[in-house]
Amino acid sequence: MKVKICGITDPDTAIAAVGFGADAIGFVFAESKRKVELDKAKEIIAKLPSDVMKVGVFVNEMAEEIEKIAYYAGLTHIQLHGDEPASLSEKLTLPVIKAASIENNDSVREIKNFPCEFLLLDGPKGKYRGGNGLAFDWKNINLDILSEKKIILAGGLHEGNIEEAIQTVQPDMVDVSSGVETEGKKDLQKIKIFIKKAKGSLTRRITV
Prior knowledge:
Blueprint: E1 2-5, H1 11-20, E2 24-28, H2 38-46, E3 53-58, H3 63-73, E4 77-80, H4 86-91, E5 96-101, H5 105-111, E6 118-122, E7 150-153, H6 162-169, E8 173-176, E9 181-182, E10 185-186, H7 188-207
Parallel strand pairs: 1-2, 1-8, 2-3, 3-4, 4-5, 5-6, 6-7, 7-8
Antiparallel strand pairs: 9-10
Helix pairs in contact: 1-2, 1-7, 6-7
């Protein structure tokens, strides 16, 4: 099971997360309490291994600005977390992760044809587009609708529910931000436990 740790703002946390087994690191460039300065993101990315995904999170940004930031910082993937049209995704030169707030099967159907490498299924919207720590009802969503898509599960994940989440949804990757924080700051112990449980749960699901 691949794991993305999102909302990273300092190199020590990023390096530690990768050391624990994180496959992707997310950098928020939209308005958020986890927004990272462009030069800081560039500094962090320069210290990460080449095989780790470096994902930039944007909300309703212009394609030209996304491309400019991605090139300067060294991003490998673009996460669109707003109301971006398919035409914007098609303009981008890097692989796209399209995030969507999931409430019911209608919201799943709305995104099934969006052009992207991954669909990120997030919880309900809160103050910000993501990172609100809210989960959707995994068991009452028909993910067969998205059978041809690679799925990233996000929203309300933490060490206490990650194994159940993976068992239920069986995504290609899981994404966590607030679920590995203590008092609004990334907690290395929580990151370590989350990654260990996420990666261990796949083995148990296969062998049952």
